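Checked the freezer inventory, then went back to the computational side. Two predictions to log before the end of the day. The first one is the construct we discussed on Monday; recording sequence and tokens without edits.
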Amino acid sequence: MNEKSFMEIVPRDSREPGCVTDPVSNASEAKSKAAWAGEDSLSLTRRYLNDVGFHPLLSAQEERSLSRRARQGEQAARQRLIESNLRLVIKVALRYAGRGLPFMDLVEEGNLGL
């Protein structure tokens, strides 16, 4: 292999002096980052579920009233409807949780639908 083809194949940053990497340390670093990411996502999931639980449920009359106001363009009414229906999204997501999709992906898609 001549120098020109070597330069085309090997990325520039790996040709720099002192760039030899240890695959074992890279793997352990990746596992460590994944563990932290998993822990963070778990705490964020718990926090989200707790936050959703604090939004009060609406009566049928309140829901109709908010719906009318939201259709007229009132942003606060629209926001209240969305926040109050987040519990419903979680309930539906729980039904589909064991079918191959991550729970939070189901919740995210449901929230987008609202």
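The second is the one RB wanted added to the comparison set:
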Amino acid sequence: AQDLKNLAETINFIDPNIDHAKKAASILKGLDVITGDCTNADIFQEIRVKNADFFISVVEDDDDNIMSCLLAKAEGARKVIAVRNDQRYVDLFLSLGVDHIINPQNISIQKIIEDIKAVPIENHLKLKNGGIEVMRFRAGRNSRIIKKPLRDLQGLFKRSIIVGIILRDNDIFIPGGDTLINEDDEVFVLYNSENTKFVHKLFESSML
């Protein structure tokens, strides 16, 4: 974090461990150190992540890194970078809106800094190719897609709609054909821009 100081006027360092956060505060001069959990969306309002040019998640849990990046992106962070040891599903996570996924075994802090400097800023909810958007929804009680296996919903999803990630009770998982979406699940959906109204109606709930 200290090495990134030259890239921005303000850097927030967030750590879920209070003892580690106190130690970090004594070492990382000039940075704002906050104790909190980045899979909790409330923390993003506290640090005003909607104004952030970059959000980098480097906790030990791979899935927490992906989840916090998607939450930060949905809240308005322009670019999000996740550290992930498990390189499975990288293309999917990139398509959902994570801008960079870094394997810590193959990269240094200097490379991260170089990547940050090289990345242009663009609309954070539209993918680069062909009018594709990613949105986070909460499945409503009246939604047509809850309590049914995803494979049985292929008829509804024929309009280039993909359920990429589900967040349920702070657990994150990639759905399969047998997966059922429950009421109040937070669902990350990938779809063509022309299907926006249809997707909102399908979930019978407002965008998060």
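For RB: The CA atoms of residues 123 and 145 lie 29 Å apart. The beta strands are 12-15, 32-35, 54-57, 79-83, 100-102, 132-138, 161-168, 171-173, 186-192. Let me know if you want it refolded.
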